[in-house]
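Researcher: Here's the sequence for the chain we discussed earlier.
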Amino acid sequence: SNSYFNNVVSCQVLDPHTQILCSMSDCYGSSVSWKLAVGGQSSNSVSNALSCAIPIINSVTNILLNTSGGDIFYVDGLNFGDVSSIVRVTYGPDGYGYTASCIVHTAGTLLKCTAAPGIGYGHAIVVKVADLSSSPLTNALSYKCPVITTVYGPGVSGPTTGNDIVYISGSQFGPFGYSPSNIIVTYGPTGIEYLATGCTLVSAHTNIQCLNVPGTGKDHRWQLSIATQKSNFYEFTAYAPPVIYYYTTNGTTTSGSMLIYIHGFNFGYLYSKITSITYTGYNNTIYDVTTRCSL
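Model: Thanks. This is the structure I predict for it:
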């Protein structure tokens, strides 16, 4: 017996008076003590005489989990004890961080577990029976990648000055409680040119809020990464188009060219690439001065 079980086992005498052989079953935990009864008389108790076998994990089934938790998975292995065993199953980057709710499904060899809410992939898993823990089984469990279904809010068509709210809706965003540093949102023509700021989970598993940054252009693709797991691309959003209010001039340069100042809004941040600037001159002639302009 120990702190976790108390069993009676059958034994046979090997050497008269000095040695017996016993067959153990349902053994789990360390520091097992022994007491012998012969002819109605009991011996003293020998403490910490041995330790039961540590649990061993062979494999895990149903390894892709919803971030909301509740999925059933099975752990196959050895030395899991019987249905009354005290079993604790944890998983995470190093085998710890999340705790599943588990029972012994098949005595000794199979656990049935219910996953906790979480995020991330390639989690190691550890089984603890009584006070004995298995070695971690690496890359055993992963949560599903985030999925973006829509991007909305003032920032999806806002001014080029940025700092407008953008909401990202979808699934598999994870539960509350993990660090916002695990959330990375990028967007742009290829999905990576701009990095949104201040991203935080506002609805567990389904909704994230960010601020866009100063920028320009249209046909931006959005991508969300949670704990390095990347979502699909969401297409498309755009900054507001440029608007011209008026223009002014301060005369000509020494070379005879006229300096023109164009005033308006949504021209982009300093050093933004100017795609095109044209004006219509005499006889409806269109002149392209793109290379001669700067913010």
